[in-house]
Structure formats: structure tokens, C-alpha cells
Description:
About 25% of the residues lie in helices and about 25% in strands. It is of the alpha/beta class and about 400 residues long. Strands 8, 11, 12, 13, 14, 15, 16, 17 and 18 form a nine-stranded parallel sheet that branches. Strands 3-2-7-22-23-24 form a six-stranded mixed sheet. The chain is globular and about 60 Å long. The chain has two domains: about 5-50 and about 350-375, Urease, subunit C, domain 1; about 55-340, Alpha-Beta Barrel (TIM Barrel), CATH 3.20.20. Helix 1 (about 70-80) packs across helix 2 (about 100-115).
Amino acid sequence: MDAVVAAPQALLGRTIVGPASVRIRDGRIVEVITGEPPAGAEVLPDGLLTPGLVDVQVNGFVGVDFAEADADAMRAVAGALPSTGVTRFLPTLITAPVPVALRQARAVLAASASLASGARPLGVHLEGPFLSPKRAGVHDPTLMVAPGPSEIDALLELGSALRMVTLAPEQPGGLDAVRRLVSAGVLVAVGHSDATGEQTRAAADAGARMVTHLFNAQRPLGHREPGVPGVALVDDRFTLGLIADLAHVGPDVCRLVFNAAGARVALVTDAVAAAGMPPGRYQLGGADVVLTDDGVPRSPEGTIAGSALTLDRAIRNIVSVGVPVEDALASATIVPAEVIGESGLGRLAPGAVADLVWWDSDLRPRKVWVDGAVAYDADNPSLPKSASYATAGQ
């Protein structure tokens, strides 16, 4: 039997319209109706209906570090993410030796296969080890290697589950690695890179289509040498990953990014295990990360280490700097879905997966559906499935 959800306003593509209704059958949207709701619809009294949010860079959440994830840990993350509006996510693993990264990736994939509810993983994103030691951030530069043919062969053993690789294209063999990965259907992103503008453009010529956390851990923008961000802002081939916690990138620059390339921005959290947790000590790829009262995770030496951001808060942050609501929402729905090659996600349209978010007037999720089933309801809260992790770092 069909279910129909109706709202005063809905995000269709990149435009807010209303009223509108979504008809769901077998976990898919079969019809979108504008105007008055049909008989029998679940009518939302206020707020806004959008597609579920898609986050393509999540290192961990609610005390869980994906480098050490098992089935229970994955269930905790999948159960907690819908409260932030996220219905699909890409577990991300940071720099490790290739054999270790493959072991971690296979563990994440095995844990993902056991999920029966909650947000759905989309595969894996390997952020390293083919990065530049000059732009290491909190990644261990001693573990970084050049992407030789044998290393790429090993990664491609993951098959279609390998969805995204972040690398530094200026490293020896970097452009050849981009070409091989892209030909295998992998999204390649430029990140943790000291590439010049010319080298960044060459990466796009080779097939790279994203920049991982724009401005962070990359050669900066200069007025003569544009570096990674300068080329990314003007080259329409790139989708721009942006950590909008307003600490990684300041408010004015976030607004500048949207002014220059708003249709190509994909909000990401780069969340680590500390996200969704109280201040304390957590893990990122096996290394300690400290979350203090300022809400920004850091290494013991003080370097920013991922974020404690949630994607709904990123949207609110971007709206707070003056970006229109529909543009902020598109950057967490249709843009990341398109760059990862998921045409059935991130949109309210016939044939799309029935992942929905009902937002209140303050842009906070009130109810979330995954595959047409309710995964979060603010009016009917239950103990988080992550409760067993609540002691981590305290």
C-alpha cells in the first residue's frame, strides 16, 4: 500500500515549492504532487520536507572510529545519524599502510552488510595514503606513499565498494593513479595536496572531480599562484567539499565559496568519533584526538583533527552567513549525491529512494525516513543505539 507524505513546503531539485506531497511505494518515490495533499496523506502541519542528507566524508561518530569499526559500532553510527538528517554516508578511513587500509575497509564493509535499519553506508572513502607529507594535517606523514601500480591494484581489489579516493596528484605516479581509479568508476578527489594550480588542473584533466575539504591541508590560494582552492573555485569540473563548522573555514570565506561556486559545493562533516559526544579523548585512525568545550577536535599537539560537526548544523551555519536555505540544502543533498554517482539519492523525484527529512522552522530535523521507513522521530525519542559507546573518552 502506498504512503503519502505532504508538507507546506518541499525542496524539489534546488528550489523550494509548496505545498507538495510525495507518494512512496516499496521504499521508493513513485510520484511528487504539487498543490493540495491527496486524501489519506500524512500531512505535516508546518516546516519543510527535503531529501535525506548525504555525507561523503565521515571518519566516525558517537564514539566510533571507522578504523576500528565492528558490526555493533556500525549499528551505533547508523542508528544515530538520522537524528542529524543524514540518511546515506560514506565511511572514511585516513592514512594507513595499504594492507592496513584494506583490512580496515573490509571490516567496514562487512559491518555495513549487517545493517537492517538506520542510515545506509555507501561503500568506503580512502583519504590516503597517497597524500603529500607537506600537507599532512593530523595524518601520519611517515605512512604516506606514492600511488604506484601495485598499490592501485591492491585498492581496486575492493571492487565497486571503493567509492572515493582522496590523493595528492602531484606525487610521483599521481596522475596515472587518477586515470586508473577513474576508469574503474572511483571518484577521485584532490586533497592533502601541495599541488600548484597547474597541477590541480592537470588532475581534473585526468578525471579528478572533487576537492576534499577546500582550503584545509592544501596549497593555499594566492593572487598569482592559485593553488588548489583557486583552481577549484573557477574550474566547473570540481565539486568542492566544505567543512562548514566555521572553524575549518571562516564565515566570510564560506560565503565567498558559495558566491563563487555555490552550485558545486558539497557540505561534508569530516566527522570523527568525537562528533555527537561530550568533551573527552577519542580516536582517529588509531591516534588520540581531544575534544574540548570549544567543540573542535584536535590532536594533543593542537592541530585540528577532523570535526565534531553534524550535517544539519553545517546547513544552519551556512544559512547563518547569508546563503539561501535552498542552496544550503542542495549542498547537502543533490550535490554530494551527484558527485558520488548516486542519481537515486538527494532528490524528491519519481524513482528516487524514499529518504526524507522533515525540518522545523529552525532547520532542525523533526522526522527522518530511510527507504520509506521512519528512522528518527523527535516526538518519539528513544535511547540512542550508541549508548554503549557513551563512556568513550570520558
